[in-house]
Design goal:
homotetramer, 260 residues, alpha/beta, Rossmann fold, nine-stranded mixed β-sheet, 8 helices, 28% strand
Chain lengths: 260, 260, 260, 260
């Protein structure tokens, strides 16, 4: 595989068009700021895709050339076509990485990869969040200290309905009294998945250096190790199996049934 | 909750009607033999449901009264309606137990709970299987020794594309040279899930005492601890948060953008 | 095994003798209050053991009659004899349950079961702790709501150096800004282990109804499913293995060595 | 950290001196063959250390310069000094990688890292082993196909008494009828641990290309991400905590005690 990591930054790009406050922070969309933040790193190639493009910008060709997909969605999860979700899912299981951001917790793709509801508690009062680094040795936390803070954010609180993460990377402390598993790793099929909590649209969170450092690290971590379809083949025996005369005669079975 | 465990045994019930060899072994369907095997145990109440019943026999009423659902399907996974799968899934996430048997690995419900492809290798030459008990202290292996054998069975071989099980209970050795993770536990939402490999329709496997002992144990293990819907509520702060004047002025944000 | 759960509450019992503030709260020792709290529950039989008894009160006989051991220590971890630690460890691996409380995180027995350093951050300024319940369906949280609070406590903060828990039950929020994995489950050998953070000696924490409810639930959860020694036997083959003439002649090996 | 991975290959080096059959296969010791196998790879620097050297060759200096330690021992586990085990353990928890080979399952260092007994079943009749690759996307299986075989080996059978691996990489099929979790990954502290089953001294297993490929891959996987001591610091509050007047008067506590 190429040495370059090819990232597709997917954005819903609706709030930025309709909500004045969001438009002011992200005049070209959150996806553009995320893409710019990634593209300034050596070895990472970035393209973007948005909901309102044909096939949501996620054609078979685009996905085949994507090593890692980042996903931000919120208000229009339901508009993402099931067929495209299934296509993305297939690529993840074959090895493509997935980074799910903030309100993407309720996206079709994340919920279908997790198998759970992915529900949580929330509140939007611009409170402070402090993300504690539980795994200083993990590649996703490289360059991040013991904790970092986001001065104003939406709150997400437990219980977050997810499968137990393979590795829990960040736990958030919120000013209002809650906690949250804010950085979680899983492997599904041959693909790696990272959920990262920060990213509410009404705050300039994707301009935060630490947030972008973590997303960049996560992209590197989620780079495919292989890219391989799943098959369910009928295979020949490796060891010799003597021919078997199997007779499940009426008597034999009936005898067992009697026992029931 | 009731002291009785209320089990619904779901059967596809197609092979038994069309294939003479299967009909001979299971004249009233596999689901009937499984149901009988469970019903002989004190404290377990059993009903059955099949594909060709309205709503596949899995109405909201039936599921609301089901503590644990067992699932056997093979030839008609695609005929199970998505709407019913979603209904079953909701009940599992709220606390209902799920036992998936053999070829149910490719059922819509199992794949949607796992998030993976659930593919594997297979071969049908009536070979011998030996299931090794890795967790003698687990409730699912109560009464099972170090291993037990099934004299003639279809083979399933690794790689089985599943999320790492919370607990790996059985690993199978096959005469032809393969191995398989044959007993696997997961928790998803508030529900417990057990996958159990044995159960090929052309062999009298559900008459096997050990197999039925394990399914019975699994039913007891998967009994709901709670039954609770998932919600995503907006909540009030517990701690006092001082009023915030948040101003993400153009200057501030643009300054960050410049850095990009 | 008996229907009764036989619990041994182990206490270091030093602070209570030397520190006036602690003596005032726990005149008969913390172990007595924990034991009383457990003994008021039907189906639980309790005895206590302390550091300054012969063999720390943990003779082979006592352990053989103990289903679940609870452990509180702090100032004298180093005085616990290695031989007794090894004895306790053997019983846990054979099936005995272990509940480790608060400063027991640095006990020899907990560190030897975890294999890690078990270090953390701490601070003692009587701050508020709020324990969030991440697993409302788990037996250990039965009767506990979404969260509960301890008005004054010592703080423990991440990173807590433990192996990833099999199940993370509680995460704490602290007034001073930290978070902590306060309730963690593991299985080791045939035994179950629960670490529970609350319990600082200078606060009346073991009089707290919620705390004692959780310890009681944990005792029920940790009850042995089996009690079985570990052996490393030489076993006969189950399948027929043809006699083998194995000859690793000099030539053959040298040939390989050449490749190196 | 250096780009080179500095490996120390530790060998017990006793069988090779005393047993003619082993001496014939490994005239310079197994550690030499393992070291040669690793050293032929670019980017890996190797040194060896043996039991009978002072401090078993594992001085503080050596360990400080070791990125990954491989361990083979069998007949003399008891002769490894506890003090050296503790030193190695400290380095692993701080970030050094550990690869445990074959009979190393019963070494002091492996058992102390796992916290379990690490017992298993065994048999030595030169039977065939087939190792199935469960994780084709994992760096440890790079270049390894679906399975590989060892024509003659000692058998290890389940139940292997280990904590559930973070990732299960290989499962073995044995000619005589057993299965075994032959490749297992864990993280402890900041260090990575890989257990790999093959390596019996009476067969030329460390000349096997696949075996050495896997050990080489494991060395790369286990390379330290950080190297950092564990501390247990008293820390200042980040948030302002108002001064507290805590009074646990006799009355208050007694009132609670009455309830008991």
């Amino acid at each position: 595989m190429s040495d370059k990591i090819r990232v597709t930054v997917w954005g819903e790009y609706r709030h930025e068009l309709k909500n004045e406050a969001v438009k002011k922070i992200y005049p070209d969309g959150m996806h553009t700021v995320i893409a710019n933040g990634l593209a300034r790193n050596a070895g990472i190639e970035v393209r973007t895709a948005i909901l309102d493009e044909p096939e949501h910008g996620l054609t078979e060709e685009v996905l085949a050339e994507t090593d890692v997909l980042t996903w931000w969605g919120h208000t229009a999860h339901g508009e993402v076509q099931d067929e495209i979700v299934e296509r993305v899912r297939k690529h993840i299981l074959e090895g493509m990485g997935l980074i799910v951001l903030h309100s993407g917790h309720f996206s079709k793709i994340f919920r279908s990869m997790m198998g759970t509801n992915c529900s949580l508690k929330w509140r939007e009062v611009a409170e402070k969040e402090r993300l504690w680094n539980l795994e200083p040795g993990h590649p996703i936390t490289e360059g991040i200290g013991e904790y970092f803070e986001i001065p104003n954010t939406e709150m997400y609180g437990e219980r977050f309905d997810i499968p137990t993460p393979d590795k829990l990377i960040f736990v958030s402390w919120f000013e209002g009294g809650e906690v949250f598993r804010s950085g979680c790793c899983w492997e599904r099929g041959h693909g790696r998945i990272f959920y990262f909590r920060p990213g509410h649209e009404t705050y300039p969170i994707f301009y935060n250096e630490q947030v972008m450092k973590i997303i960049t690290n996560a992209v590197r971590w989620a780079k495919p190790r292989i890219r391989q379809p799943h098959t369910c083949p009928c295979v020949k025996a490796i060891e010799t199996i003597p021919p078997k005369e199997v007779d499940f005669g009426k008597a034999g079975v009936q005898q067992d049934v009697k026992g029931a």
